[in-house]
Amino acid sequence: MAQINTRVGDFAGNTSRIIDVVTKACAQYDNPLVIFPELTLIGYPPEDLLLRPSVADIVECHLNRLCKELPSGAWVFIGYPRAEAEGLYNAMGVLHEGKIVAEYHKQELPNYQVFDEKRYFKPGKNKACVISIENIPVGLSICEDIWAPNPTAQAALHGAKLLININSSPFHVGKQIERHDLVSFRAEELGLSIVYVNQVGAQDELVFDGGSFAVNNRGEIVSAAKTFEEDLYWTRIDNSLADLHFIPFDLPEPMPTIETIWQALVLGLRDYVQKNGFPSVILGLSGGVDSALTFALAVDALGAEKVEAIMMPFRYTSPISIEDAKEQANNLGIKLKIISIESVYEAFVDSLSEEFSGLSPDITEENLQARCRGVILMSISNKKGSLVLTTGNKTEIAVGYSTLYGDMAGGFDVLKDVPKMLVYELCKYRNGISECIPVRVLDRPPSAELAPDQTDQDSLPPYQILDEILELYIEKDQSMENIVSLGYVSEHVEKAIRLVDQNEYKRRQAPVGVRISKRGFGRDRRYPITSKWTR
């Protein structure tokens, strides 16, 4: 089970990686079956790269290279786009002794949540592909095929005893349990052993958690890869008996949910920075909980030497915020830089004095503070080439509690799909590994510190309630009436929904961020900006 981290569009690099992995596998066992994830050759998801006319020729070129350079004896299962006269297919090929000895086209094309496969691919022609390897009839299938009954049943009807299922299945909380349950059910239902191989790594907002595994024909997991780790994971089959028999391997310990979330965020941030060639990251450290968590994630993902933190105090910044920011920087081994925005803010106010004449101070002045900080961070980014990390969480982004061209200014938001209450849970989890985030940061009422004695709850419902309402509205598509019927205060529900609907224009301008839920902002949720929709 070659659980590898591919790079979208890097045909040459992905091809070299395939050859290296197969060579390593052949050094360990004679004539191994080496199974790679879905669309390995181009990387997943390639999106509209698939519409480029040159894709077909590039795929053919690199398949030819694989046929020439792969070690003899190995059976290599890889995914790639296959162009034919009637259209493009999501394909899986079996390469052996210098040629493609079998090819299967994915039948079930997902077109929901983050998936758009019907935009690019034709469905396979409702036809099983079974090949004999070492006297074992082996069926081929791709990702979504395992979630529908027909493709698996077809393979079984054509005599398959072992089914290979290759995947690029993105992470969300609880996804691995769903995979285990589904694949075990299919195996037991048909008396068919199944090897499920998933990619690992991140591509823009999507994280792929790996977790490849094999189940026997009774639906029992007999070997499994670790999640969030790239490696070559083995499972062995004894085919000397009438029935296939897996030789058991030690299974990895299940990972607690909070740890899976942490690992997904770290992997998503690391891959985005490294695959896009940024030498380092920079963020504003405010002394608040969101920037504290972002800071800790950045250091865990990239190392302290690649993270720069800037504190940008103003007249409303409390002394304890500065103290807490310094303490966290010290805990993580980073020197905190302090740049006051006082003079920058005054320069803007002076320039705007005539335009603002006769108008009372309002939220404009608060937003101006955030925009001063955004300008500073983006200027440092331009000068040093560092990626600016924004620190907004899912709750704030949902209700528009953020400033365009201010705290939203940046290139990546690792907390984009993390609700406020989960922010606190993740901070406590990280402190359980080593003391990192000052306890006072977690105990203080959240505040943007843009006005005297300001707290978030001055203008928002309590975060615990707000998160629950937002989950019901955004992730579960519940109406205002349904949410109120569950016992929530109608005033809170109405305000939350109104803010979500009004702030779509902000979310369209927000940086990309890691997806950990079934309904993140971005590919998952595509609502119009201009709309008369209510509730």
Name the descriptors.
alpha/beta, Nitrilase/N-carbamoyl-D-aminoacid amidohydrolase, Rossmann fold, 2 domains, six-stranded mixed β-sheet, five-stranded parallel β-sheet, 17 helices, 21 strands, 38% helix, elongated
Task: Tell the overall outline.
Answer: elongated
| Poorly predicted segments | none
How large is the share of residues in beta strands?
Answer: 15-25%
Which structural class fits the helix and strand makeup? alpha/beta
The main sheet comes to:
6 strands, mixed
Nearest-integer average pLDDT = 92
Per CATH, the architecture of the largest domain is: 4-Layer Sandwich
**Count of extended strands:** 21
Give the assembly state of these chains: single chain
Q: What name does the CATH topology of the largest domain carry?
A: Nitrilase/N-carbamoyl-D-aminoacid amidohydrolase
Please tell me how large the radius of gyration is: 26 Å
CATH homologous superfamily of the largest domain - what is it? Carbon-nitrogen hydrolase
CATH class of the largest domain: Alpha Beta
Question: Termini, distance in Å?
Answer: 46 Å
Number of contiguous helices: 17
Helix content estimate: 25-40%
Strand order in space, largest sheet: 6-7-8-9-12-13
Write the layout of secondary structure elements.
Blueprint: E1 2-3, H1 11-28, E2 33-35, H2 55-69, E3 75-84, E4 87-96, E5 99-105, H3 117-120, E6 130-133, E7 136-142, H4 149-157, E8 162-167, H5 175-190, E9 193-198, E10 200-203, E11 206-209, E12 213-215, E13 221-224, E14 231-232, E15 236-238, E16 245-247, H6 257-275, E17 281-284, H7 289-302, E18 307-311, H8 319-331, E19 337-338, H9 342-351, H10 363-384, E20 387-390, H11 394-399, E21 412-413, H12 420-433, H13 439-443, H14 463-475, H15 480-485, H16 490-502, H17 504-508
Parallel strand pairs: 2-3, 7-8, 8-9, 17-18, 17-20, 18-19, 20-21
Antiparallel strand pairs: 1-14, 3-4, 4-5, 6-7, 9-12, 10-11, 12-13, 15-16
Helix pairs in contact: 1-2, 6-7, 6-12, 7-12, 9-10, 14-16
